[in-house]
Amino acid sequence: MTQPDATRIDLTLVRTYLNDHITGASAVASRVQRMSRNPDAGQDAADLERLATELREERRVHEATARDLGFRLSRWKHLGAALAERVARLKPNGRAVGRSPMTIVLELEVLRSGLEGKRLGWTTLREHAVALDLDAERLDALVARSREQAELVEAMHARHRAQAFDAPDAHEGRAAGGRG
Asked: Rounded to the nearest 10 degrees, how much is the dihedral formed by the CA atoms of 70, 76, 79, 84?
């Protein structure tokens, strides 16, 4: 891959880019942590908890990269993302009371999209690793980790999507041996 010339890099754009990825990582890690605590996560709760931990670790990598490059981080963006994540919880889910089985499916779809954006972010930084004096091998490992995380989320999605549109009493019928 061709590395960009360091003299052509606008560090203001790099700072904004890192801030945006840190903001996204904070919001996604928080959402995944919350997902891991919901009963509808079922057998995926432990994997979601591990994924939230990995996402927080990766946020710290972004923060360290920003510090190493001498950038200040935007508190306002991070506070705004945290607020937006909390407001998103208020959206209607088609059920007057409780969680809809559709909710975890949508959350996993949004998470999968976020993981792809994160993977592309690591790929972009990898392309500029020499010019920014970043650890290319570490970035390669983060790209690979993002792919593994995406595969994990896709497997979770496959387990939940069959029930995405179940009626409120569908699970009771299955538990009693009914067709549901």
From this structure: -120
